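Researcher: Good morning. I'm working through a list of sequences from a screen, and I'd like to move beyond sequence-only analysis. For each chain I'm collecting a predicted structure so we can compare shapes side by side. This is the next one on the list. No need for commentary yet; just the structure.
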Amino acid sequence: MMASARRRAASGSPGFLRRSQPRHGEKAVMVLLVAASLVSVLTTVGIVIALIPPAAEFFQKVNFGAFITGTEWSPLFKPPHFGVLPLVTATLMVTAIALLVAVPLGLGAAVYLSEYAKPRVRSLFKPVLEVLAGIPTVVYGFFALTAITPLLQDVWPGGEGPQVFNALAAGFVMGVMIIPTIASLSEDAMRAVPQDLRDGAFALGSSRMQVSTRVVFPAAFSGIIAAVVLGISRAIGETLIVAIAAGGRPNLSWNPLEGMQTMTAFIAAAGIGDLPTGSTGYQTIFAVGSLLFVMTLVMNLLSIRLVRKYREVYE
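Model: Good morning. Structure tokens for this chain:
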């Protein structure tokens, strides 16, 4: 009987499963997906390759310790100073102000859209919220300079108010810019939480606020972390807002009312100048860019570790 079954299988009897026709469309889609993945990887590799040689030449001329710990940044003047701390502190300050604005508002919007808003309201509010992400950053920069800074100067309670160029206005507007990023991704993570968890909490007598903060939020914590990290990455890499609203003068200060220059603003300003290729001033662009790349890389590695640690898997 087993021998006859093998013969029927070999002869292609209809009673047995046979290999279907090759699906060329699926293979083409897979090739496109692999190509898309390779483009992102190769782009990152290309950026690293472009940064390393000029940065290595720069650090052959400038001591790395003096570069990291120096408090004066004036690479284009004589005598030049290559202390990058003023750029780093300005970048961190503007990013911190942006997060103080974006994280509470973004997470609040995400909780409302996920747990409180009716489907019709959500379908209206979420696209309107995401429109903010499509506004050009140069518009945000001019808005910070021409609207937010004068408003802060008018309502400042006492003492010297914000200067014409200041980190406070730049950070505030940058926070508004990254609200859609944090809100949209966090809301998607919250909606991915199974409805059974919500129903079980409601069955135990929990209020909607308790369900939102003690059930849904912890369950979606890994996705929320990813959203916040993406917002931080966008804030650190933003150029036009800080170049327009925060000013272009390196300033080692923790006073957000003063003007200061971030790492990206310096790269933009020096990159469009008339620096001769191969000069030390030209190589500072790559040195600052390498430091910025390392900072974002470390931050993303830490975020990946946190996401894996708090990730919840549901069947």
